[in-house]
């Protein structure tokens, strides 16, 4: 099976949409595309977080499986998008993840207790979130043609060379740590 060029890529919402009130819910979003095919697309926003850290969301009545926060890239739960907002997931290396959920060659999006248990093998390269973004067949292609999204390939050197500013800068750094296991180089002081 050949992956689509959009699988394992990033979408940044076009900054020119900032003044459109219909798009305020996606303003400053940076979406990681886990899977793109003729059947549609699924991705998660890496640029929004719940206000409480993971440790405060886990409890006896929580739907969130237990996971060691020390094994995560960030201690907060990511708000991945407006779809299935009560469904918790873990995004981690596909190499260490049981064959559950969605995956591409690099990362896997798992929903099962087995996927959360695999976080112990991730060495700090996993994130937990809830909710996602989804597009039906051809929908994302139309939005790209209309200029709503700016696509970026999942390429370390390219992503570290682009002068991103906050707020997507933090999400780019989070992605680089998760996907490549390394932080971007720090600029040298003049």
CATH architecture: 3-Layer(aba) Sandwich
Q: What average pLDDT do the residues reach?
A: 81
CATH class wording? Alpha Beta
List unreliable stretches of 5+ residues. none
Give the helices and strands as they follow along the chain: EEEEHEEEEHEHEHH
Helix content: 10-25%
The class by helix and strand makeup works out as: alpha+beta
Number of helices: 5
**Shape type:** globular
The amount of beta strand, in percent, is 25-35%
CATH topology category name: VC0467-like
- Write down how many β-strands occur, each being a DSSP E stretch of 2 or more residues: 10
* Assigned CATH superfamily: VC0467-like
What would you report as the Rg, rounded to the nearest angstrom? 16 Å
Largest sheet: 10 strands, mixed
The domain count comes to: 1
**Through-space gap between termini:** 48 Å
Pfam families: DUF179
Family: Belongs to the UPF0301 (AlgH) family.
């Amino acid at each position: 099976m050949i992956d689509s060029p959009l699988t394992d890529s990033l979408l940044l919402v076009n900054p020119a949409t900032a003044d459109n009130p219909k798009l305020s819910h996606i303003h400053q979003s940076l979406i990681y595309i886990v899977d793109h095919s003729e059947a549609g697309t699924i991705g998660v926003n890496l640029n929004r977080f719940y206000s409480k850290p993971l440790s405060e969301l886990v409890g006896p009545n929580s739907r969130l499986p237990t996971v060691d926060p020390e094994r995560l890239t960030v201690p907060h739960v990511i708000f991945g998008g407006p779809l299935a907002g009560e469904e918790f997931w873990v995004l981690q290396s596909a190499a260490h993840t049981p064959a559950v959920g969605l995956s591409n060659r690099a990362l896997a999006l798992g929903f099962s207790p087995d996927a959360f248990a695999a976080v112990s093998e991730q060495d700090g390269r996993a994130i937990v979130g809830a909710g996602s973004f989804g597009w039906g067949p051809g929908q994302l292609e139309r939005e790209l043609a209309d200029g709503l999204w700016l696509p970026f390939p999942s390429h370390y050197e390219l992503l570290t060379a682009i002068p991103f500013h906050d707020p997507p800068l933090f999400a780019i750094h989070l992605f680089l740590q998760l996907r490549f296991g390394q932080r971007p180089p720090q600029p040298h002081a003049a």
